[in-house]
Amino acid sequence: MGARSQTGVTKIRINKVNAAHEQVVRVQNGWVMLVLMFALVMCDIALIVFAIKDGVETTGSPHLGLLIGGGLAIPLLIIFMTGFFTLQPNQARVLVLFGAYKGTVRTPGFHWGNPFYSNGPQQTASWRANLAAAKTGTGPAPGTLPVGRNKISLRARTLNGDKLKVNDKRGNPIEIAAVVVWRVEDSAQAMFDVDNYENYVPIQSESALRHLASMYAYDHSGEEDEITLRSNVDEVSQALRTELQERLSKAGVVVDEARLTHLAYAPEIAQAM
């Protein structure tokens, strides 16, 4: 909301959205909790059996209080059992409890966490998009859709970009393509600061490559110490990596490498040039 100052100038208050940052946390060991759950199930079964048998033998009817307590414990134990999850090496799970970020688990293995940890917006949007694609026949079958639970791969990924037709610094139409090696470094930023980081990376990569191509000429034209796309591949690739890192840092993504894979004049001027 705006507040009018004494000078008559309206000042607008802008609420800045704070970027999310990853907080590594630990959860319960899954094997220990599995043994505990099994023991609780056995105790609950024994309680129900005791309530029925002892009640019938002593009073002619089951102990109603113990029987109700044992019955109510069954759905609770079932809910608690949904808290088990596994993580592979270079995989993380973002913990979201009733809309609040509680941390990220990075340790591989068998774990148990709060069963009410829910799917975040990233996973839900991805699942819905894949489901819609499956229904139209343009995506994976429903049986192959990811389960989710906010799991994010931390492995390095390769984006092999398509050939783009752009104009270089002098306005000449050229074809250019690049390969980008990237990985998620901050799972909280990837999950909460962008709508879908897997779509965000290729879109920003294409935008950065187009911008880069317009900053340099394809080849030398007499200018001394001029950096060109054709003659200075290493310098241009480094510039591309720097710009990509700046663009993708808000999504918690680290660019390990970015290099040009294709560079040529557009077919319509290739023979003339």
Structure description:
It contains 7 helices and 12 strands. It has 273 residues and is α+β, with helices and mostly antiparallel strands. Among the domains are: 28-93 and 107-118; 156-267, 2-Layer Sandwich (Tetrahydropterin Synthase, Chain A). Strands 9, 10, 11 and 12 form a 4-stranded antiparallel beta sheet that branches. Helix 1 runs antiparallel to helix 2 and helix 5 crosses helix 6 (233-248). The radius of gyration is 29 Å and the shape is rod-shaped.
CATH homologous superfamily grouping of the domain at 156-267: Band 7 domain
Report the structural category. Answer: alpha+beta
End-to-end distance: 58 Å
Tell me about the largest β-sheet.
4 strands, antiparallel
Corresponding CATH architecture of the domain at 156-267: 2-Layer Sandwich
What is the CATH third-level topology name of the domain at 156-267? Tetrahydropterin Synthase, Chain A
Q: What shape does the CA trace take?
A: rod-shaped
Q: What fraction of the residues are assigned to beta strands by DSSP?
A: 15-25%
Uncertain runs: 1-17, 121-125, 138-147
Task: Spell the H/E element sequence.
Answer: EEEHHEEEEHEEEEHHHEH
The pLDDT mean sits at 82
Helix content range:
25-40%
Rg measurement, Å = 29 Å
Number of helices: 7
- CATH class category of the domain at 156-267: Alpha Beta
Number of strands: 12
Helix and strand layout, with pairings?
Elements: E1 2-4, E2 10-12, E3 28-29, H1 30-58, H2 64-81, E4 84-87, E5 91-97, E6 100-105, E7 109-112, H3 121-136, E8 151-153, E9 157-160, E10 164-167, E11 173-184, H4 187-192, H5 197-215, H6 233-248, E12 253-265, H7 267-270
Antiparallel strand pairs: 1-2, 3-7, 4-7, 5-6, 5-8, 9-11, 10-11, 11-12
